[in-house]
Amino acid sequence: MKYDVILGKHIDGLRAEGRYRIFADVRRRQGAFPSAEQVTQTGSKPITVWCSNDYLGMGQHPSVIAAMHDAIDRVGAGSGGTRNISGTTHYHVELEAEIADLHGKESALLFTSAYVANDATLSTLVKLMPGTVILSDEKNHASMIEGIRHGGGHKFVFRHNDLADLESKLRALPIGSPKIIAFESVYSMDGDIAPIAAICDLADKYGAMTYIDEVHAVGMYGPRGGGIAEREGVMSRVDVINGTLAKGFGVMGGYIAASRTLCDAIRSFAPGFIFSTSLAPAVVAGALASIRHLKGSSVERASHQERARTLKARLAAARIPVKDNPSHIVPILVGNPVHCKAVTDSLLGGFGIYVQPINYPTVPKGTERMRLTPSPLHTNAHMDELITALSSLWAACPMANGKFVRLAAA
Predict the structure, then answer these.
(1) Is pLDDT of 181 > 60?
(2) Which are the catalytic amino acids?
(3) Residue 397: pLDDT band by 50, 70, 90 thresholds?
(4) CB 328, CB 191: distance < 8 Å
């Protein structure tokens, strides 16, 4: 059996569709974000990063870096194992308490990523509560979809942010049966926001638990960075909040915040938690410093929102097909995987602007896009360079004709 031949055919299929992903070899420079270097076979060249999920630039914040250095000096590099076997340090305990306080919950539980947190929590809840039905928004993240699938229970998918469709499905379920409504706050590819309060109203009416993924909102919304639910004053109405430490907080890891009993149940029964080596103490210390800083500072959030509004307005004025939305996400629609990659290749190769193409399965086929992520550290000059480059590419790229002319910088 020629296994590589079989696997290679799948890779060839991706290449033929224009969906094969190539990683850019990037080297950041501390204190210089969004400036970085692309490492090539012949050396390196300066680039500007426009696609980082380090939304607020906290991965470069002096207090975060100092906390990580201090933790390494104090306790070393690794965590020592799973949380059950020597992998719990005081840093982990402090961070969970800080997260619980951030979301106004009794408890919190750390995971190696928000993906693992979603997968482990949703699947375990279904297994611990036989007969549970999950009602899932059709645009939920892959981690939520996988967690629901791994739970092996019944599910219903409701139309995106469609309260009438959600209620019709809730109404059809037996009164008193366990139910979980799973949804996101900010949907990261289109940038729209869920009607959290209205979903909570339906949950109250039909006796459902609410599970929200706030990964693209924590740190960036709310008076203390608790997310959209905090901004809208409904955190107490949401039963389980999933968040990340890798985006707004700029480090790595994921978590849930919920009741003490729920977190204890997941801690005690979820294989994704029990059998995973815990986050390194330095990473936890950095996340702790980031959360504490953003709880007390709104400067980064205000600047971030201003930068996103400004970029959207400038793109629209330049007739670049930017998708408007109420969040910080800035999607530029292309609608073809080959064209999308050609545009991003030209931006990087000709203009030193790094943006990754977003193709299927991350977004539906025919909706391929670039997803720009302006940060407080992106200046007007950075925007000038980006708008000039995109305008040049769009002028040379009659998308409707199915052709694209690769340009070099003038």
Answers:
(1) yes
(2) 247
(3) low
(4) yes
